[in-house]
Design goal:
The complex is a heterodimer. Chain A is 68% helix and 0% strand. Chain A is mainly α. The radius of gyration of chain A is 24 Å and the shape is globular. By secondary structure, chain B is α/β, with parallel strands linked by helices. In chain B, strand 6 and strand 7 form a beta hairpin. Classes of the chains: A mainly alpha, B alpha/beta. Chains A and B meet through helix 7, helix 16 and helix 19 of A and helix 1, helix 7 and helix 10 of B.
Chain lengths: 460, 315
């Protein structure tokens, strides 16, 4: 009960009225699941599932996608000089709506498929839908993982609480120190693209690549850590994605809770890879297109999703010739090949981020066309400094940001051989406390508090 | 209470002790006089360190603590104008709200900031405003946004206390107070710096130029507000040495400079010193190509406040 009150209060701190949407979603899915559980035949359960899908996705469409679709229909009508008088829906997007909608949908679909037992306790189910650490930006939890944890008594455990606090601290560091610092340059450039070319665009794009990672994985760490302090285990959402050796691996490491959601509830139901080749490609492409659209009602997100879908299709298509070349040059599993794989995957991800961050498609093409326009000057430090003029930050700020990103990636590298905090436990106290103080004072003194940004994923 | 809970609370308590210690240090040193409660560190040591590291914040807080109706706003170039001489001439107490390397958008922000302080206190406005404005500031790329940061610091004690800039300034204030306050500043090699200004700084200012459409609109908005509220607004174009001014020609910006002077003519009273005259032709009148010597600043002030322009001209 306390968790439910805390969760609802947490959400209402942002906008009181929108709590109605969460309650509506909760009640619909609770009763739909009850009805489905009472029916033995899957066919009969289907109509209840459709009610849940239509109502949940309907709310999502109304708040998130209606204006986008409406504006595009308007454009088409305008092309033919036909009057189209449907007004835009003047409403604020409810924070976290895509996250909790997908979480409740996963429950209903699992009940429909008989993969999870129905939850009879309305209060517990309501907490599952609105659990505050992960309510607004995930991880998107599955009912069979999170729901049982609400029935277990969570006794205070010193080690668990400490581990949770450590993870929260690292999450805060990534968010307020690294992501918010990078955001100053990224927003400065991407919101005034006409003023920039060359190195400024490249730096802003690279900075965004790390900003979005630190922002989102930082939030996930805070969510997972705070849940852990209370005794709840949430799923991992990130596993060093920029060290992936392929785009397919990237999606096993980036926003894991969403990519597995799409795998289980869209890709596999579409047939997955157990179909003819063209259909497999189609399934992949559609899954990533929808994933892009999930992020936001803008063509930029659709292109971003489509790009990732295309990357994966290309990887499958060129798998055999690539393998042939590797065998021919005896590069299989070589160090050079691994570096190439990681670098190439990173470059593909960076390229796609251009669309994700741009305010519209033409902005994205501006960035692509102008990013290397003065590549000859990249070795001239004085010229670089000059090109960065107008960013509103000094060269020192940029160097500090680069240093912080390097620090974060060193942490990620160190994490490859095991949990960093676990390893730290075996170190002498002065090292442990030294690390804690570096993070604490980093959070206190290095964060640009006068320019803090919202979490990027709150808008989704 | 559970034994583990006690251990955790005790450790957290010990862990955050340095944070509380830091809060106490900031309250005691308070280099920007934000809290204005402790005088343990002398005002001189505070001012020296704060002006060196964040003149904008120092001046904004100083103005907030001691507001005047007469201000001079600009970058380091107008810092030289002697307030004591202005007081002798006008009887008014002027405050110089300068910021090192201030940008034009920040100067406008500072005007609104200063005016809003008066308006929020007793619904009155400033009376006399002098804005230091030169062509090198009139560039879309000459942009920075530090006044917004200052306002946030003024509104939020947390941001003041936990701020890298404050950390540095506290250290410098303590150093100035207890170790080397009287240590003279290292003297720059005038010739080398002169050369650097002509070559590098001029290049930074002029090689990347875009007409500042938005900033001009904001300038006009400021001018309109001054007219509507009977604020006497003077836009002062301070002199640059001829060598620096000639760099404009290298970058084909003469026409833009003329356009700049034309554009600001109607915003307020514009007094121009940056054209060929006996100051701009005289090397000994400048500490470096952008900053006049004290005696020249005195001459400018004398001309400005006695309504007898001899070297300067009204546009």
């Amino acid at each position: 009960m306390l968790l439910l009150i805390a969760s609802y209060y947490f959400y209402m701190c942002w906008k009181v009225e929108y709590i109605v949407l969460i309650i509506a979603s909760t009640l619909i899915d609770y009763f739909v699941a009850q009805k489905m559980a009472a029916l033995k035949q899957k066919v009969k359960r289907k109509k209840w599932l459709l009610i849940s899908l239509f109502s949940n996705l309907g709310i999502l469409f109304g708040f998130k996608y209606f204006n986008f679709v409406n504006a595009n229909v308007q454009t088409i009508f305008d092309q033919f000089n036909v009057f189209y008088g449907v007004p835009a829906f003047d409403v604020l997007l409810p924070v976290g709506i895509s996250f909790y909608t997908f979480q409740t949908l996963s429950y209903t679909i699992d009940v429909y498929n008989g993969k999870t037992p129905v939850q009879n306790h309305l209060g517990i189910f309501a907490v599952y839908v609105s659990f505050f650490p992960q309510l607004v930006a995930g991880p998107i939890e599955r009912s069979n993982h999170l729901l049982p944890q609400f029935f277990v008594e969570h006794k205070f455990s010193y080690d668990r609480v400490k581990y949770g606090l450590q993870q929260m601290m690292w999450g805060f560091f990534k968010k307020v120190v690294i992501a918010d610092r990078l955001a100053i340059v990224v927003d400065g450039v991407y919101n005034n693209l006409d003023n920039y070319s060359g190195i400024s665009l490249l730096i802003a794009t690279l900075f965004f690549t790390f900003q979005i990672y630190c922002d989102f994985s930082g939030y996930s760490d805070i969510a997972i850590g705070s849940a852990r302090v209370m005794g709840f285990e949430l799923m991992d959402n990130f596993k060093r994605p920029y060290f992936s050796k392929s785009i397919s691996e990237f999606w096993q490491r980036w926003h894991i809770s969403l990519s597995t959601w799409f795998r289980d509830y869209l890709y596999i139901p579409l047939g997955g890879n157990r179909v003819v080749k063209w259909r497999w490609y189609y399934n992949l492409f559609i899954t990533f297109l929808v994933s892009g659209f999930w992020h936001g009602a803008n063509w930029t997100f659709l292109v971003w999703g489509a790009l990732h879908g295309t990357y994966l299709i290309m990887a499958i298509t060129f798998k055999k010739p690539k393998q042939y070349l590797l065998d021919f040059f005896k590069l299989n599993n070589s160090y050079i090949h691994k570096i190439y794989q990681v670098s190439f995957t990173f470059a593909l991800a960076v390229f796609a981020w251009i669309f994700f961050r741009s305010n519209n498609i033409s902005d994205a093409f501006y960035v692509i066309n102008n990013m290397f326009s003065d590549i000859g000057d990249y070795t001239d430090f004085e010229k670089m400094k000059l090109n960065l003029r107008g960013l509103g930050v000094g060269i020192n700020d940029i160097l500090i940001s680069v240093g912080l990103v390097a620090f974060m990636e060193c942490y990620n590298l160190y994490e490859r051989s095991g949990d960093v905090w676990g390893k730290l436990e075996n170190k002498p106290r002065w090292i442990r406390w030294g690390v804690y103080y570096i993070l604490l004072f980093g959070i206190l003194f290095l964060a640009p508090y006068s320019r803090v940004s919202n979490f990027i994923y709150f808008q989704f | 209470m559970n034994k583990d809970v006690k251990i955790l609370l005790r450790k957290i308590g010990v862990f955050v002790l340095p944070v509380f210690a830091w809060i106490c240090i900031v309250l005691i040193v308070d280099p920007f006089n934000y809290f204005n409660v402790s005088q343990i560190i002398t005002a001189k040591a505070k001012e020296k360190s704060a002006q060196q590291l964040n003149s904008l914040l120092y001046n904004a807080i100083h103005f907030k603590n001691n507001p005047t109706k007469h201000i001079i706003i600009g970058d380091s170039r107008i810092r030289k104008l002697p307030n004591s001489r202005i007081k002798e001439l006008t009887g008014n107490e002027y405050y110089t709200m300068h910021s090192n390397a201030a940008k034009l958008n920040e100067i406008i922000d500072l005007f609104w900031f200063s005016d809003s302080l008066w308006f929020s206190t007793d619904s009155t406005n400033l009376e006399n405003v002098i804005i230091g404005i030169n062509f090198n500031l009139y560039n879309e790329y000459a942009y920075s946004n530090r006044v917004a940061d200052v306002k946030k610091i003024l509104d939020n004690k947390f941001i003041y206390i936990f701020n890298w800039n404050i950390l540095e300034t506290v250290y410098l204030a303590l150093k100035n107070e207890f170790f080397d306050f009287n240590k003279p500043n290292e003297k720059k090699d005038k010739e080398a710096f002169w050369d650097y200004t002509i070559k590098t700084i001029a290049k930074n200012h002029y090689s990347k130029y875009k007409h500042p459409k938005e900033t001009l609109l904001r300038l006009k908005e400021m001018g309109d507000s001054c007219k509507a509220n009977n604020i006497n607004l003077i836009l002062l174009i301070v002199p640059h040495h001829k060598e620096f001014h000639d760099r404009l020609v290298d970058y084909n910006l003469e026409a833009e400079e003329a356009r700049f002077k034309e554009a600001i003519k109607d915003i307020g009273t514009v007094i121009d010193y940056d054209f060929p005259n006996q100051i701009t032709n005289c090397r000994s009148c400048f500490g470096d190509p952008l900053h006049t010597t004290d005696s020249i600043s005195n001459i400018i002030v004398n001309e400005l406040f006695s309504d007898s322009l001899v070297i300067g001209r009204k546009l």
